Amino acid sequence: MTLHERMESLADLLIAGGLSNEERAQAERHVADCAACGALIRDARDFAAWAKGLIASDAPPADLEDRVIERFRAAGQTGKRRFVVGKRVFRVTGSIAAAVALIFLGSMVQVVPDATRGDVNAQQVEETRRDGAGTPLGAAKPKFHVHFTLDHDAHDHPAEPEEISSYKSRGLDNLSSAEADFRAHDRDGTHVNGSRSGDAKGRYAMTGEATPSSQKFNELFGLVAGGDPGASEVKQAELGLVKRQFEEGLGEQRPQIELRSRGASAAEKNGLAFGEGRAGKSTELPDAGTAEAPTATPSLPATSAGITGVFGKLSAFNRAQNQEAGKPAKQELSVAAADPPASRATPTPQENRKIIRNADVSLEVDSYDATYAKLAEAAAAEKGFVASANTRKLANGKIQATVVIRIPPDRFEAVIARFKELGTIRHQNIGSEDVTKAYIDLESRLAGKQTLAARLSKLLAEGKGTVKELMEVEVQLGATNEAIESIKGEIKYFDNRIGLSTISLEIAEKDLGQPFEYIQTLQANLALTVRDPDDAYARAQKEITDAGGQVVDSKMNRQSDGSSTGTIRGRVDADKFQALREALKKLGVATNDTVNQQKTAHGGQEAMPKSNAPLRKEQAVLDVTLSTPPLFVTRRSQLQVETPEVESAYANSRRAAEGAGGKIVDGSLTGRAERMVAVLRIQMDADKFTPLVESLKTAGKVKNVAVNSVLPVTAADGGAALLRERAEIELTLVSPPQLIADENGIGKSIRDTFSNSWAGMLWSIEKLFVGMSLAGPWVILLALGVFFWRRRRKTPPTAAP
Amino acid sequence: MDPHEELERVRRSQSGDRTAFEDLIRAHARLVWAFIYGWVKDPAWTEDLVQETFLKAWEALKDLKQPEAFRGWLLTIARRLAWRQAELADRHDALPEPLELAAPAEVRNPEEARDEVQKALARLPERYRVPVTLHFLNGMEYGAIEKSTGLANGSLRGLVARGVAKLRLELAPWWRSRHDPA
């Protein structure tokens, strides 16, 4: 192929510089001569230039290498390289950490629900301190008790009914400082106790309790309220504060302050049992602690002297508050409680009032007859009379009576006052019933009916109208007159009740409840061991009947082991009791012999009768139990024999025992061929014991032998107990021991270790899977998210054309 | 960089020598560029991928069992990245289009002509395309191409000659129309 022919393919190479110098020189020489090839070369050059020119904008930058290197260096500085180096280590440790985390997570799964069960939100801790252990305060010096709940940022807290007895501060900005201030009072000898609790929203509440002295009370109260007490006197501070809180208009969320002023115990007692001993008048102090006054709840004030004042102020204040609130108080504090009873007991009856007065009085007197005489005399003297008298004479000779006397109302109090002279007043209840309204009603009804009756009579007298009409008028008149009589009767009844007061007297003589005699009861338990129960059973019954007694109950039981038990219950006159008991004891050996003697008072409710009260003896009861002597093992042997042939030795021993008249109580054969253990328990009569032990010893090599003899128990009377003696042998047959025991040594340790590790591994796997199933879905979701995010980011703006 | 030098640089890089790897970048950056450009056809994106190729190569260099096969290994990484990118960008752009010999004669727009050159280049088989790209776009002379691709003189000659010839054949209609008066 000539150069000219090859020129077509060489042209491009020539332009690209792909020819060697020699080839190039050749080609250039040829082109100079050949016009066609010259065109070819020009063409190639033009094409290359055209194409290069067109895509020159796509050419890489001249500093491409530098830029790549720069990027490479930057990547190295960001630690990517180091990451690569540590990648494997990271992977391994990372996987382990992840697995451990998953196991932990898995094992946590069971715990989590329990932990979330607690309701943090609703927590409200209230701490109360009521012991009052601190500085002792005198009776006159009340000890105040502040009980409150501070609620930090309580705006969105609904009021809770349980909090009604505690003060609730609203929207306190800084609870911590309030708490600090509150606790600071502890230094002044104020006993401060508080606790705080928080919820998930960062709100927290504090409850506290303090028992400050009265001087400190103002200050502390002001502190709790979050404001200045602004008053010098305790009571006013209390009321003023409450009022202020109320005016703030907390609406449903009413501030409550529980004040417990705790006085000395004597004062409390006085307050609680107020009025005791004043003419038996049952007066109860209103329980101020339960009064549901809307704002302040005072407990019992310290001293009775202070009661009226405090209560007066408080109740007046409460009434004012209630009017303000448009809501009546549920219970008003009564000031009258502390008033002397006399002011109540002597009202002046108004002329136009119809009042029925009556009284129930319970009297204890020395002698009923004398009392009755005095009573009748007193009633007559006061223009009254004895309406009825019922008497009852009790078994101890005492008289109980119900006497009703009627007295004009104006003499009522005077008569009651005279009762004190008659005896001791146990109980007194004086009441009155205002029947004015009912009485007036009756009167007006009567007047109406009487008018009607008059008209009807007039109609009838005139005789106008038909017979039928007149008949109707007649009937109507009859009914009206009936009604008039009835109303008149009622009025008469009222007049009677109003005109004469009724006093019911329960009269009882002193020592009414005293018993009047003793009753003596005798009961004996006699347990006898007898050789022949049947004979003894018959003889015992005969003894009882011979002594003049009766056999109430008798029974004979026979058991399968040859023993039998008989029980007899007999009754006999008390004076024959001892003789019968002695006679019965001779039938056998007594194992139990007890006599229960009881002296009980009879009649009345009181414990002790008079010293000269008669003694009545009831028939004595004898419970006799007759039983055969018990089986008793007096000799016992433990025999351990080692033999290679345990099984046959066991069978032989059984035969030997049965041959000697023994009874196999228990027998067992356990173990495998090499290691067998047989246990045999044999009971037999005592005299056959020794020969049998000797014969059993021949079974093999005797490893251990122990013989115990137990002395028979002595009977209750010191003689030999009645027993059925037995002997017992416990035979243990064992194979000779093996040289190496199975369950110890290094092999066992290794096995145990492996089994423990295996169990641990199984546990870990279980927890790992629990953890994976918990975390797995989230990890997959996360991975998917990252994948899509990266994919989106990497998409080029637009690919070339 | 002769094969011995390159082998030595690769070994040093494997033991963590960053400067040695920088030498390798300098030697191969344009080859990788040309290689990727054929698939991606976007110079900016191509540069990114070149950088990524080298970063990946550096990370994975430890695992390279045959240091003498570095160039081929590097190009495999580049190819994988380019393919993925081409796939993500647009499948159609990456695939060669059927020949359109009867191209419209009135094509005058240099933009369209440029696209055609790109497409024609992309349609060339890889072994032709890389040397032609190196020559046309990187302005490499024959000797430089020889060094860069590591191809022996004989085979490179054939590739360049046939590659340019193929390109000319494909672009003939547009090339001829350039002479028409605007």
Could you characterize the architecture of this molecule?
- The complex is a heterodimer of chains A (801) and B (182).
- Chain A is α/β, with parallel strands linked by helices.
- Chain A folds into 6 domains: 3-58; 60-112, no CATH class; 146-338, no CATH class; 355-512, no CATH class; 517-627, 2-Layer Sandwich (Alpha-Beta Plaits), CATH 3.30.70; 631-734, Alpha-Beta Plaits.
- Chain A has 22 helices and 22 strands.
- In chain A, the strands form 4 sheets. In chain A, strands 1, 2, 3, 4, 5 and 6 form a 6-stranded mixed beta sheet that branches.
- The two termini of chain A are 43 Å apart.
- Chain B has 182 residues and is mainly alpha-helical.
- Chain B folds into 2 domains: 1-95, Orthogonal Bundle (Rna Polymerase Sigma Factor, Chain: A), CATH 1.10.1740; 97-182, Arc Repressor Mutant, subunit A (Orthogonal Bundle), CATH 1.10.10.10.
- Chain B has 9 helices and no strands.
- Chain B starts with a helix and ends in a 5-residue tail after the last helix.
- Classes of the chains: A alpha/beta (801), B mainly alpha (182).
- The interface between A and B is large, with 42 and 55 residues.
List the total number of helices of chain B: 9
Residue runs with pLDDT of under 50 for 5 or more positions of chain B: 94-105
Report the strand count of chain B: 0
Sheet with most strands of chain A: 6 strands, mixed
* Assembly level: heterodimer
* Outline of chain B: globular
Number of helices of chain A: 22
What does the main sheet of chain B amount to?
none
